[in-house]
Amino acid sequence: MSISEWIHHTADTLVSHNLQIPLFVLLILFAFAEAAAFVGFILPGETSLLIGGVLAHAGAWNVWVFLVAAIIGAIAGDSVGYEVGKHFGPKIKENTFGRLVGEKRWKFAQAIFDRYHGGAIFFGRAQALLRALVPALAGMNKVPYRTFLKWNAAGGIVFSTTVVLLGYEFANSISTLEKYLRYWAIFFLSLVVVVVLVLKRKLEHLLED
């Protein structure tokens, strides 16, 4: 079974067993929890958005409905993270979770926030650790919520749209790749993953400089 056939088989199975709605909700909750519950520290939220985009192409749900829900979930999750930071402040760093994150990561996120302010809220979505921590740091640093919401909404719209549509277009392209390249499609997928990981590493080093 090819990758595209497996994707469509998965989508058909979800629909036939009425599981597409629970999965839809789960993927959006995962994007929401990335900052609201700091889940992004463990697993990046773009995973759920990519899966949502891929399954949308296979017919599990409408891509635009999923995209709107993803944007709302991302913005709402960051807003909860902001409120957590605002009301609990430095205590977050001292509890069990804060110690798990580690002082080095907190300092890194704080340094980026101090340097770029609103830009950190917007561009921080390109890096999983910053997506998880920057909203809370914005709350800790008493950034006015209207200012935070402006940058948060802009980042949520741009990032969510990009990732969901990348997943959608990937599913669309993989069928063509498999048609002409057969097993080379697997190599292409592996190459895409490597390139994404390298670019994220370069971004992290750039932000640290």
Automatic annotation (TrEMBL):
Residues 43-168 form the VTT domain. The keyword Ligase does not apply. This is Unannotated protein. GO terms for cellular component: plasma membrane. Its main location: membrane. It is found in: Cell membrane. The chain crosses the membrane at residues 21-43, 49-76, 148-168, 180-199. Keywords: Cell membrane, Membrane, Transmembrane, Transmembrane helix. The keyword Disulfide bond does not apply. It is a multi-pass membrane protein. Pfam families: VTT_dom. Signal peptide: none annotated.
